[in-house]
Each structure stands twice: as C-alpha cells, then as structure tokens.
Write a structure and sequence with these properties.
12 helices, 953 residues, globular
Length: 953
C-alpha cells in the first residue's frame, strides 16, 4: 500500500465504493460470528487530510493513542464536543463541499479469530458496520476495502481472503462531515463515530446471500400464505404449522395473524446448503382499501410516537436493554405505533417490535431541511447527481428490514422538500415491495406516496380533512390521512391531546398520529444535570428544542406520557344510565378476554368498598352496559365516585398481571361546599389586627400568621414561569403568549394598596395589580372572615382597561416557613393543566414538596395538581370553593422563570404555595398550535374562596 492522504471520497456524492449489496438483517444463525465491539485505539485530527493512511498498515504502533469504546461517539468520550441544530447546517451550505475543519477520527482494532473459526476453504467472511457517522474509509490488514456514507444504515465488505488466524488489523477512518451530511439534517445532535455494532460474519459456502419472507394473511379464510425467496436454494420449515417447503414455493395453511395487539410469531428455519437461519414469521397483510390503511382487513388507528434513538450518556449508541426498555414503556402506556424518525433504528429494535407488538413506519435516513433557508435551491433530492445516493439509502433500509411484520409503512425520509430523487426512491420501493404503502409528509400532492400526511396541523384543520373538506387533488382526497408529527412534547405539555383523539375517532379517514417525540435528548452533564444546545459553545444551536420528549433523558415518564396513555387507552369506561357503566372495546383486533375489571366506591377520595366487575369479552368496536353494585349502605356521607379499572388478567411479555390498561371515574354525589359562618370580627391591637386564629399587619392588611403557622406575602398572582409551549417557536405567525405576556409586563406586576377596611364581621383589603407602563390592571379585593377557629378568604377580581391577552394564571400565592409533606384531596397523582387533565384522577394523595416538582430539562411552570378540594401542608389546611389548582415549591416563580437548567434551582428557606382559581392551557406551540380558545384563561371578573385552618396533627 502507499501511504497517502486521499480525501476526494469525502465530498463525492456517490454512496461509496467496495461495499456489498444490501441484504436482510438477522440477529444470529448457526454460522460463526465475532463481535468487534469493545475498546479500540483512537486518534482525533482537526482535518480530513491531517494524517496519511499509514496507521492502517500491519505493525503500526498505536500504543500512544487514546482508548475509545465502540459502539460510541468520540465527542461523548472526551474528544471534541457535541453540537445541536434543529435544521440549520452547522457549516457553510455549498453542496457537496464541507469545511476544511473536519474532525476526523482514526480507529484501530487488532483481533484474533476464535480457534473454531472455519477454514478459508469453507466459504468467506463479511465485515459489517451497522452505523457510522458520517463517512468511513476501511482497511483490513493493510488492504483498503472501500468507503461509505449513510450513517444509520448497514454496510458490509467481503473480507474472507484477507483474514488470518491472529493479529488482524482493522482500521477505520471516520469523518464528521461529508457530502452525506447534507442528507442527514435530522434535528438532533451531530455525533460522529462508529456508534452501532461492528461484526465479523462467516459466510459458509451455500449460504443465502439474501432472503425475503412473504407471509400474507387472508382474513376472510383465516389462512396465511408463506413463501421465502432466497438467493440460495434451500428449505423452509415451520414446525408449529407443519410446514416444510422448498424456497420459492408458496404454501397456505390456517394461522393466527400478527398484529400490534396480538403479535403472534411462528418460529421457523431457512436451511440452505451452508447455513440455518432462524425465522420469526408474522402473517399479516397490509393494503390500501376503501381509502384506508388496512391490516388483515381492518383499518388501524395509529396511537404513535416518533422515536429518535437516544441515551443521555451514549448518544445514539443504544444497547439491547435500552431498546427493550423503550418498547416496554411504550406498550405499558398504550402506544401502538412508532415512526422511526428520521432514520432506520438499530435493527434489533425492530425485532422487539415484532415480538412485543408495535406498528412501525420505517423511515429512510434522509433529511435536507437546511435547504429551506435558501428556498430549497440546490436541494439534493432534486439534483440527479445525488439520486444514486438516495436510491442506495432506500435500498439499504428496505432490504435490511423487509422481513419484519411490524413494518407496515415505508417512509422516504423527512422534510426534504420535493424532487425527482424522491420520486425515484418511491418508484424503486413500490417495485421492490408492493406489499407496503409509501409515506412522505412533504409530498403534499401525494404524487409519490400512498398516504396523505401532515405535521402539527390545528385541530380544526384535521377535522376538515376527516370530513373530506381539505380540497386538493382527487387522488389525495381519496387517500388515508395521519399526522406524522403532532403534540410537540417540549417541556410542560403537550396540551390538547384528548381533543385530537376525539377528532381522530370521529372520522374514519383519520388514522391517528405520532406524537413528537419519544425522549428528551439531554446529555448528562455535571454542570447542568442535562445539557442541551448551546451548552457546549456551539456558534449555531437551537437550545433546548432537542428536549421535546414524552420521557425524560433517563427514561422516566413525563406527565405528558401519562396523559397520552389515558387519552389513547384501548378501553373506554364511562358512566352509564341507571347506575351502570358503559364499556367500549377500542382495540382494532383484540377482544377484552385478556382484561379483568375492578370497581371501587370512594367517598371523599377514600375507598369504602371494592370488587371485581364481570365484563363480557367484547369484540373490537363493541360496547356493553354493565351494572354496578349498589353503593354500600354504610358508606359515609360526602362526595362519592365510582372508579372502574381494566387490568391485565395475567402477565404478558410487556407488563405484569394487574397492570392498569384503562380506567374511568364518574361522580355519584357532589361535595358540600366549604363555608365559614361569621362568628366575631376583626380586632385592632397596636400594629396587628386579629381575626379568629389569624393576625394581620394593621397598616397593610397583610396576613402574618394563622395560629402558630407564619405566612408570608399572600397576594394575587397572575404570572407563571413560561413554558416552552407558552413561548412558542420564533418562526410561527400565530400569537405567542409567552413573549407577549413579557412585553406587556405580566412578569413584573405592581401591587398598590388602596384600602384596609375593618368592620364588624370582616377585614377587607382593596388593591390594584398592574404592570408598569400599562394602563390596564386588575382590581383585587380580599375579604377575610372567621368562625373563631377557621379563617375564610374571598378574593374578587375585576379587570379594568383594555385586556388583549389571556392571563397565565389567576390565584393567590404565599410563603410558608416550613413545609415538607403535602396531602390533598383532588386530582392526582401527577400534574395537570386545563388541556392536559385527562389522566388526573380524583383521590387522596400525598407527596413531599420536592416530589411535586416535574424536572423539565429547562425549568418552567410545572407541578400543578388540578381539582383540589383541600390540601394540607406546613401545618395548614386549605379548602377551596370552587376547586383549585395547587403548586408548592422551594423557590419563587421568579427564580423558576430565570433558571436555564435544573442546577440553577437552589432551594430556599420558604416554600411558596400557589392556590390557583385558573390556569392558561398548554397547547403545543413550541412547534404546533397553541391551546384551543376554550382553554384560554381570559381576563374576566372572578370570585373564589378559601378556608384556612390548622391541619390536624
């Protein structure tokens, strides 16, 4: 070999050279394999041409190099820094050229073959890379194998002739930037490296170079037809079905079909002259019929999520345990579908979707979103020079994943505009695999696709599409529709999920959607807890827009996921007539035989009786009225509810027996309203006014204490630390309330004291609350009364001036010197807001103050408990009329608002409590619509009351 520095391939638009044709992936066979994962030697250079290729020769001394874990990203192992952009390319846009400053990592791995590795005469060997970002050049034992691009796709090289028993030297040069980077602008961290498995595979003589499992299902006949096409002749056996046929030969037998709800797999074997490959076969048919995506003859409703691959320490280098954790969490939260945004996942993830049951929209490793900044000029997908690279990416996805029953839709990619290259991809996919529809959101005319798909549409527009009023070409109006992205789960939210679901279920054409997205891409960082864009000194970044998931970086479910689980639950449980309950099976395929039902009768949040509820095994779409028992005769008086739960009757592969799949709750009787009969009035004494158990400042009327409990700063509060959805996205033309609230000064309201009035039965404090520089405000009147042991407060609020915006919140705030445990009766156990309250269940709950906080990666308004009747904390009991929202935290709203990371929040000596009469909705305007108007907290006259007393010991 010659020692030189060759870099032309980096900017070549071709997909690479020297690689083998793509083929189906399978986890294992009886052929030998050797994982090359582990510790590699590593050297980082600033440019692509800084070092020659002498490091690839045998005998090269790399003992002075660093060690690097493979799979992994070098920027997450102390070599350089990660960078995040949403769609802006972090380098000058001049395709296919990339910057001279091009971090380049040289990787070395020396390995021996196992003693039982077959002789060279018994077939060959293949070296497989499952994922390298963004461009790799490979040598083995000094011989150059080739180079490739396509970061989230597999690439293989034939290496049998080069192997030796010991001392094999594998050298890989990886460039962060290449022409391929222009095709991989996918709203995520830019993370170079060998981040998926590297494996050496023996390929015995007579083994199949590729195979395609065709397993269709005839729902009318109840039969499945199996045919396995193979590049080598052999036989296919499925013992459970009594099948033993030649490759290429079809057979039809009675089978149980595969679906995401009933993921029945049959174990089989493809046996050729040199290899036995285990098969996991799911019989199912996907078709477009009656304008719908149907599987096994039935329309499906996608209750999905978009899933980037992410781990807070390892980036996109995921292990099998983490992948399984994702699928289990999805199943336990009623998610039934995944869009693999915006690239094919690790192939083992699809095995898990087959096994545990998830519909998959498999998306190609393709996005050119940054070209929108120049009006899509020079967009690679509309430039014929790039078409071979696009076709290569499509083929590597389809060939790798074609044998997965879970994959029901192919997707061309994401946010690439339109162009001839996408048409070529669609034509190739349709020709290679006509058994699955093709998706691509930006094809608004559906020229190349089989599904009409949009993202982040408002509810009203989705409903118009469902009603067939969306206009456009007839072809598009005859296609099924789903939202490939909606419900942007950034920070506190998304709100409005239940409203979307009601629209989906009301119109047959609407086949659901995929919430954006599954996980926050926070990087664990000792400085911040979790880091996001800009925390590594990037000159261009999009901040915490990378943290927009339904689970936190450590995979703890967010309140958004808990809400989504409730919204999409597959069983509806509603109060029925005559003391019964109406149960509806909302599955597409499964009956209710796997579920057990249980009832509980609760008074004032405490269960006084419970039992099993017989429910028939309803078929999909069926409903039944089920009679509930009579309320217990000995039940105490008070506010009563029935709560009915649907639970797993037995453990499954994804959840244990007793796991709650769905629940419903409905009121039987209303609660008595709290009141304080007046008994005695306020008494002045020096600098204080006493009223029952309370004392007030005589000059200002400010509450100082209730019994032994000191109270600080009770006053009207309208501000909240704006959420990501309040702030919205800067490119949006709709009103964004967060910035407007700040512009109008709602975060700096002034409180003017107008009067302190003492009469025979009440202390009245009159104030005006308004921002500097504005003429509008709120008149707030506090009227305090007592029955000698309890303290009543009625707050009357009247807006004055021209209020053009809704309020963030409306209620009172005060501080307590000491509070830790919180008990309450009302909605729980988690946080809830007006348009994200479906999962809030009325009951008695308790928590510490710290546990009430929701750890959004960027701190913001959080932790409200809705529908609270009463709460006890810090020695106080508070009852509300009407019900209120409760928050309590060890920092002020102002501190929360100023914090950029969780580590900025330092607990103080005071616990600040908000008792809110109203809160503005959440929406999903961080990348979608704001809250629906019915969730606006409008500046209107309001009156609300609280009763304070000492909490029982």
């Amino acid at each position: 070999m010659s020692f030189r520095t060759e870099t032309e391939y980096v900017e070549d638009v071709s997909p690479g050279s020297g690689v083998l044709p793509p083929r189906a992936w399978y986890a294992a066979s009886d052929a030998k394999s050797l994982s090359l994962n582990g510790s590699w030697r590593f050297r980082l250079s600033d440019t692509a041409d800084a070092e020659d290729d002498s490091f690839a020769r045998e005998g090269y001394d790399a003992s002075g190099w660093a060690e690097l874990a493979v799979p992994g990203h070098w920027v997450l192992q102390g070599h350089g820094s990660p960078a995040y952009t949403n769609h802006l390319y972090p380098f000058p846009v001049d395709p296919p050229r990339v910057p001279t400053e091009n971090p380049t990592g040289d990787h070395l791995r020396v390995f021996d073959l196992p003693a039982d590795w077959p002789d060279r005469s018994d077939g060959g060997a293949v070296l497989r890379f499952d994922g390298v970002e963004s461009c790799a050049r490979v040598w083995l034992n000094g011989a150059e194998l080739g180079e490739f691009k396509g970061s989230r796709l597999p690439h293989e090289f034939a290496v049998g002739r080069l192997l030796k028993p010991a001392g094999n030297v594998l050298a890989v040069r990886v460039h962060q930037w290449s022409s391929g980077s222009y095709l991989e602008d996918q709203d995520q961290w830019w993370l170079p490296g060998v981040f998926r498995d590297v494996t050496l595979l023996h390929r015995p003589a007579g083994s199949a170079p590729d195979f395609f499992v065709h397993a269709s299902y005839d729902h009318a006949a109840g039969t499945g037809t199996l045919r396995v096409d193979s590049g080598a002749r052999g036989r296919v056996s499925v013992p459970g079905l009594g099948i033993d046929i030649a490759t290429g030969e079809p057979v039809t037998v009675p089978v149980e079909p595969w679906s995401a709800e009933t993921p029945r797999l049959y174990d089989g074997v493809l046996a050729t002259g040199g290899e036995r490959v285990p098969l996991r076969i799911g019989f199912r048919t996907v078709e477009l019929a009656d304008g719908l995506i149907k599987v096994n003859g039935r329309a499906v409703l996608f209750k999905g999520v978009n899933r980037h691959e992410w781990h807070p320490e390892h980036g996109r280098a995921l292990d099998l345990v983490t992948m399984r954790e994702d699928v289990l969490l999805m199943k336990r939260h009623n998610v039934n579908a995944v869009r693999t945004s915006h690239y094919p996942p690790h192939p083992a993830f699809l095995d898990l979707c087959d096994e545990l049951g998830l519909w998959v929209v498999d998306e190609c490793d393709l996005e050119t979103h940054g070209f929108v900044e120049q009006g899509w000029r020079d967009n690679p997908v509309d430039d014929d020079r790039w078409t071979p690279a696009l076709l290569d990416r499509a083929a590597r996805m389809v060939e790798r994943d074609k044998n997965h029953p879970a994959v029901v839709v192919w997707s061309l990619g994401n946010e690439c505009g339109t162009g001839r290259g996408l048409t070529a991809m669609a034509e190739w996919i349709h020709g290679r695999d006509p058994s699955r529809p093709v998706h691509y959101e930006s094809d608004f005319d559906c020229r190349d696709t089989d599904v009409y798909s949009r993202m982040y549409l408002p509810h009203a527009e989705v409903e118009r599409i469902g009603r067939g009023l969306d206009g456009g070409a007839r072809r598009r109006r005859e296609l099924p529709f789903f939202l490939c992205e909606y419900g942007h789960a950034m920070g506190n939210g998304p709100g409005g999920l239940a409203d979307y679901q009601r629209v989906f279920e009301a119109h047959e054409r609407l086949q659901g959607g995929f919430v954006w997205e599954w996980i926050d891409h926070g990087i664990r960082d000792e400085r911040f807890g979790y880091a996001y864009g800009g925390d590594f000194g990037e000159e261009l970044h999009d901040g915490n827009f990378v943290c927009d998931g339904l689970v936190f970086p450590d995979r703890r479910p967010s309140p958004g996921l808990v809400e989504y689980k409730k919204v999409i639950e597959p069983v509806a449980i509603e109060g029925g007539p005559l003391g019964g309950v109406r149960v509806t099976n909302k599955h597409d395929f499964a009956d209710l035989s796997a579920l057990a039902f249980a009832w509980a009768y609760q008074v004032d949040g405490e269960t006084v009786a419970s039992g099993a509820l017989p429910v028939p095994p309803l078929a999909p779409g069926e409903s039944a009225e089920v009679k509930l028992p009579e309320p217990p005769a000995a039940a105490p008086a008070g506010e009563a509810h029935w709560t009915v739960r649907a639970l797993l009757a037995a453990g499954t592969a994804w959840a244990p027996e007793g796991h709650v799949v769905a629940w419903g709750q409905f009121a039987v009787s209303a609660r008595p309203r709290p009141s304080v009969p007046v008994s005695g009035g306020p008494v002045r004494g020096g600098s204080l006014i006493t009223l029952g158990p309370a004392c007030f400042d005589a000059r200002t009327g400010a509450l100082r204490a209730i019994g032994p409990v000191a109270v600080t700063g009770l006053r009207l509060d309208v501000w909240r630390a704006t959420t990501d959805n309040d702030d919205g996205a800067p490119w949006q033309s709709d009103v964004r309330h967060g910035p407007l609230w700040r512009e109008l000064g709602l975060h700096r309201m002034r409180h003017r004291l107008d009067a302190v009035e003492v009469d025979d039965d009440a202390l009245t404090v009159r104030t005006r609350v308004a921002p500097a520089a504005r003429e509008f405000g709120l008149s707030a009147v506090y009227r305090w009364t007592s029955d000698a042991t309890r303290l009543g407060l009625t707050v009357s609020v009247t807006p004055d001036g021209d209020w053009t915006v809704p309020l963030p919140r409306l209620g009172v705030r005060f501080g307590l010197a000491a509070a830790d445990r919180v008990r309450w009766y009302g909605g729980g156990p988690g946080e809830a807001y007006p348009d994200s309250v479906t999962a809030s269940q009325v009951g008695r709950w308790q928590s510490s103050v710290d546990e009430l906080q929701t750890p959004y990666v960027r701190p913001q308004e959080n932790g409200a408990r809705a529908g609270v009747r009463w709460a006890e904390l810090g020695g106080l009991r508070v009852e509300g009329d009407p019900e209120f929202s409760l928050t309590a935290r060890r920092w002020t709203t102002e501190h929360l608002d100023a914090a950029a990371h969780l580590t900025d929040l330092v607990p103080g000596d005071t616990v600040w409590v908000n008792l809110d009469h109203g809160l503005h909705g959440l929406g999903s305007q961080s990348c979608g619509p704001g809250p629906l108007p019915r969730y606006f907290l409008r500046a209107e006259p309001a009156r609300f009351s609280f009763v304070f007393s000492e909490a029982p010991a």
